[in-house]
Design goal:
The chain is of the alpha+beta class and 290 residues long. It is built from 11 helices and 8 strands. Helix 6 runs antiparallel to helix 8, helix 6 runs antiparallel to helix 10 and helix 8 packs antiparallel against helix 9 (229-237). The protein is globular and about 55 Å long.
Length: 290
């Protein structure tokens, strides 16, 4: 069944002096949006009241001169340098004193709108973050037109064993960051000081394991994370689970992903031909309205 069309607001935060946040880039992303929704802790069901920002991800179609021609966008708002348009990337935390150095917090919006071509490359590679967009419940969708709805209806075209390697890599990166291993760092030293580990990284490591196993066994990701896993993740996020127990749970999730990586009940490769056809048809449809 084709998911519902959700014609919410496509408005994006104003331009900023960042390589992917110029005003021309904002207009391309805003006008060409076909799919946008929440992809952070809120959609996973693991947010903690008063602590989380809102993470949104979207897909847009660019005007023809940015695909078939050589058109570029400014690399910010105060430079003559240009970049190819691949995304509009904006954090509202940048609006406070401190600018780009600010860490997002409660009430902030972090939004990235990828070009459909870049998003498709990432999704075909099994990127966990971008794949989430295909499985959002209607309540978490900000905007989804007919083109976006068709894409979500064919989420299975993107599912393959490639995702196993990506989910595993992301899990291992979060695991390293949560314990401060060599070469890793934490953005939340206050959590390490209080609990002995970065509880947010720990929660995400376990969440990636849970969702990766589900994707590789069913071809879907259930959002929010089903119980009882969701309650355990929230306990970890609140620092209520001892580090030794968290490490054991992460090791178990890692082992399950490794076991499924090469033997999962999903295709070894995604359906790149269908995705290529969807891109071709979608761009032509959009360009006819430009």
């Amino acid at each position: 069944m084709t998911p519902a069309v959700v014609l919410g607001s496509r408005a994006l935060p104003s331009a900023y002096d960042h390589p992917h946040a110029s005003e021309p880039a904002r207009l391309i992303a805003e006008r060409g949006t076909v799919l946008r929704g929440q992809v952070g802790s809120g959609v996973h069901g693991t947010s903690v009241t008063g602590q989380d920002d809102r993470d949104e991800l979207g897909i847009c179609l660019e005007p023809p001169q940015f695909v078939t021609g050589l058109a570029r966008v400014p690399a910010g708002t105060s430079t003559t340098a240009t970049v190819a348009f691949e995304q509009y990337h904006r954090h509202t935390a940048w609006d406070r004193p401190g600018g780009l150095a600010n860490r997002s917090g409660a009430g902030d919006l972090d939004v990235v709108i990828y070009s459909a071509r870049k998003w498709a490359r990432l999704a075909l590679g099994g990127n966990p973050s971008v794949l989430l967009l295909l499985f959002l419940p209607d309540a978490e969708v900000v905007y989804r037109d007919e083109i976006g709805a068709e894409l979500c209806a064919h989420a299975d075209r993107f599912v393959s064993r490639r995702a196993g390697e990506r989910f595993l890599g992301y899990l291992q990166a979060q695991k390293a960051a949560m314990t401060g291993e060599v070469g890793a760092h934490t953005n939340r030293p206050e959590l390490v000081a209080e609990h002995g580990y970065d509880t947010k990284y720990a929660m995400h490591a376990l969440r990636l394991g849970e969702q990766g196993v589900e994707l590789l066994t069913t071809g879907r990701i259930t959002l929010p994370v089903p119980e009882p896993a969701r309650s355990f993740l929230r306990s970890v996020r609140r620092g209520e689970v001892p580090l030794a127990e968290v490490l054991a749970a992460v090791a178990d999730a890692e082992a399950r992903l490794i076991a499924l990586r090469d033997s999962a009940d999903v295709p070894p490769e995604p359906d790149s031909a269908w995705v290529d056809d969807w891109l071709h048809r979608s761009y032509l449809t959009f360009w006819a309205t430009c």
